[in-house]
Design a protein that fits this description.
Helices cover 36% and strands 11% of the residues. With 338 residues, the protein is of the alpha/beta class. The chain has one domain: LmbE-like (Rossmann fold, 3-Layer(aba) Sandwich), CATH 3.40.50. The longest helix has 18 residues. The chain starts with 11 loop residues before the first helix and ends in a 22-residue tail after the last strand. The structure holds zinc ion. The site of zinc ion has 5 residues, from loops. It comes from Motilibacter peucedani.
Amino acid sequence: MTTGTPEDGPFAEERSALDEAAAVVESAELTAEAEQEMAVLDQRRRILFVHAHPDDETINNGVTMAMYAAANAHVTLLTCTLGEEGEVLVPELEHLAADRDDALGQHRVGELAAAMEALGVTDSRFLGGPGRFRDSGMMGLPTNDRPDCFWQADLEQAAGLVAEVVREARPQVVVTYDENGGYGHPDHIQAHRAAMRGVELAEDEGFTDAGAREPWSVSKVYWCANPESRMREGLRALRAAGDSTSFEGLDPEGPLPYTVPDERVTAVIDGTGHVAAKLSAMRAHATQITVDGPFFALSNNLGDQVWALEHYTLVRGSAGETDPETGWETDLFSGLGV
Ligand SMILES: [Zn+2]
């Protein structure tokens, strides 16, 4: 009777060929793309923000992004345009504007990269690649009619590109704007539509444009929400301090755009420890947000803490644990068990 070793068994040759093949596979270098994908899936919590222009992410979600990135969640930012039509607030850079050199988009790619560094976010992408969709400009302007602008984009196509990112990054949570895009800018409205439809397509087995990637079902979707009471409070403080030019034309007691009724808020992120990162990201968007502009005027009058709280409305999935005092969730992943 012989006990034998695997090497001299009946399938010794086949076994050693298999071992060799396995060693080759193990030692093969992963492609950069595959490596990045594995790194993404290694992180338990994954969140995707869909925005229209560079700077929207920082203004709306700066502390939320910084907080989750610091907590080792995978934070993905998807920006739909380069913001080519933005106003240039830095005099020396005015030549970049769309009606002069038309070079603002490329400049804002750099501003966004610096802002992401400030927030600790490493996965920042442009929908369909940088420059695929152009900034449409404010509602009603002739730039809305340019065939290459985001407002004119085919919605299914744009949503399909969002779905590809969703299937790759597999976020449990997606954040975007409400149906009015927060304040009616055509690119914000379109970003909202593309994100909402993209989430549907990502989980639809019939959607095969995204190659071989598996369908992915997003558990929760939130819309950014700026509660009315907070904006009134901020404006009252500004006006009381004698500032009548910041947010010019807005009366703290009158109707307020950019806001939602407080009842629509369902979640708040308290990013007190990340206000400095948000302010530094705001400064990185130098052509768009100036230190003597309305956003900084708000914090000059109310203190930096005005930036610590970011509010949301849950529109897909169910709320997890809530703060008994406010009835709001305080973690966008709550109830998901991750
Ligand atoms: Zn915007």
